[in-house]
Design goal:
Blueprint (H helix, E strand, L loop, with lengths): L33 H29 L6 H27 L3 E2 L5 H4 L3 H8 L2 H10 L1 H13 L3 E4 L5 E4 L8 E4 L2 E4 L8 H24 L3 H12 L6 H6 L15 H25 L12
Parallel strand pairs: 1-2, 3-5
Antiparallel strand pairs: 2-3, 4-5
Helix pairs in contact: 1-2, 1-7, 2-6, 5-7
Amino acid sequence: MSTPALTRSAPTLVPQRQPVVPDQLPPVPRPRHSWALSVLWWVACLICGGLGGVVLAAVGTSRGRVPSRRRVAVVLTGTVLQLLCAVSFTVAGATGEFRACPAPSAQASGGGNGDEKAVGDAGVWGAARAMVNAPVSGAALLYGRGQGGEVYQCDNGTTAVVMDDGVVRAGTMFGTVFLTDQRMETETPRTHRLVEHEARHADQWAGFSLTAGPAAFPALYALDEAFFPGAFNHFERQAGLEEGGYEIPSDCPSIAGQLALASLGLLAGAVLIVRHRYRRPPVSDRSGTPR
């Protein structure tokens, strides 16, 4: 017997549609004012972190890094507060009726014309120093006037606020504002030497603020004071111990401070070595077993 052959129709092939790929993708639109926002961010970092802050911000922007919201909020808040303090200091200096520090004289300063020029001439650096220190100076001036202090404007570009209490030692310099309990209306050699001593502290404030922000100098001063207190402090020595009313010690610089600083350095080095030792992955041989 023979069976009839089954006839099957040929399958129908459906052509597949290929996606149309354009020859050139359209450019991705960039957000507007991106460079303007970057420049504003750099300016804010300059105000809060000095030249070091703006360099770090520029490097991060060039690498495409976006700062976190918390960092942006902290930097912008610090910038606004500093600008407000700087404006208040500028307005107070322009409209406030401050008393004048005693005019320098050869008898009071203990020297001739050279000493008079050193005390009375602020110069271009004095103007730049006042601008850099304006935020810190404004905050100190607001505090001093809030405590009922008497404000004196000195010829070397510094401002003295005389208060009854709330000062450390003979006084403390904040930017270009000197909070003190010394009477500044008296024309004595001690007054002129103290004014020059504090003017050098104002230079230190400006230099470190321009380099790493307004918090750099007080942080470094406190660190130095922890190991080299009082007359051993390197910032006080640079400003002049005799002018600041310090007694020059016989073993300056302090041997104890040097030993403490060296011990701290050795301890920090040991901690780094131990951390590197434990973070190092185990070395494996060819069989795959760790040595």
